[in-house]
Amino acid sequence: MNEIPDFLNKLLVEQYGQNIRNQIVEGYSCIRKSTFRVNTLKANVDEIKQILEIKNIEYKQVEWYKEAIIIEKDMEEHVKKLDIYNDGKIYFQSLSSMIPPLILQPKENEDILDMAAAPGGKTTQISSLTKGNALITAVEKNKIRADRLRYNIEKLKAPRINVLVQDARRLDNVFSFDRILLDAPCSGSGTFDLYNKNQEITEELVKRCTKIQLELLTKAEKILKHGHEMVYSTCSILKCENEENIQKILGRGNLEIVPIEEECTKYIPKLPVSIKGTICVKPNELYEGFFIAKLRKK
């Protein structure tokens, strides 16, 4: 079994206290159930449910998002052998990562930026939420990951998506977007898995991610249209990557918090946050640890 690094353990106790730290560690030890999203660009929920029932695959529909389906972990390989998977009618995606696009509330005919888009789960979800009628710019600096992004966009038949192989921090300030999703690179402290010995979180990684996140937030602030909204998210539960970065960007006076009040937040397990209106998902057998903030440009 993997061990929690001493520095991470110390940060969790300092930030949350021993009791909540213990709950987080319990979440790290859970075998998380598999979840997928019905790709409504190619299928409908009833069609997928009917196929699962015919194949005797046990499932549960998610209360806060009817397109999200939970299956038992040992059934994942069975589902991946079905045509609905190979044809791109479903997409395996964690429940936590489905939340930021819902909170973004993308609309048809908007110009939308996904700043760190690969492998494409959130990008194609935004396309699905807008019925394929939004113009989406999906940015990914790593060429191999960008190829994977393109593959998933094609497989799910998500239209009107332009892939840019570029560091989003270097985007030209001439760009201007109605909405921005910044699911920033992070330490992964919310997705730490005690059974994965290959997963490594270091102090250096946290510091590097924190710096990159603030630089990405700075760029997003510049290219978001006035009066419009963006969502910042990470799969980290550390304040330095989340609230502290948000406080720094708010301190410049151009952005304000939009309190998150979407229906989904009533059902998910949450950790305490230091900025009212933001949410931090607590890891358990269904959810990865995830931080989400919604911001509006004044």
CA-CA gap between termini: 48 Å
Number of domains: 2
The secondary-structure element order is: HHEHEEHHEHEHEHEEHEHEEEE
CATH topology of the largest domain: Rossmann fold
Low-confidence stretches are none
CATH homologous superfamily caption of the largest domain:
Vaccinia Virus protein VP39
Structural class: alpha/beta
Shape: globular
Tell me about the largest β-sheet: 9 strands, mixed
Please work out how many helical segments DSSP would assign. Answer: 10
Oligomer: single chain
Q: Helix content range of the residues, please?
A: 25-40%
Short description:
By secondary structure, the chain is α/β, with parallel strands linked by helices.
If you had to describe this structure to a student in words, what would you say it looks like?
By secondary structure, the protein is of the alpha/beta class. The protein has two domains: 34-92, Sun protein, domain 3 (Alpha-Beta Plaits); 96-297, Rossmann fold. Helices cover 34% and strands 22% of the residues. Strands 5, 6, 7, 8, 9, 10, 11, 12 and 13 form a nine-stranded mixed beta sheet that branches. The longest helix has 21 residues, at 203-223. The protein starts with 5 loop residues before the first helix and ends with a strand. The mean pLDDT is 96.
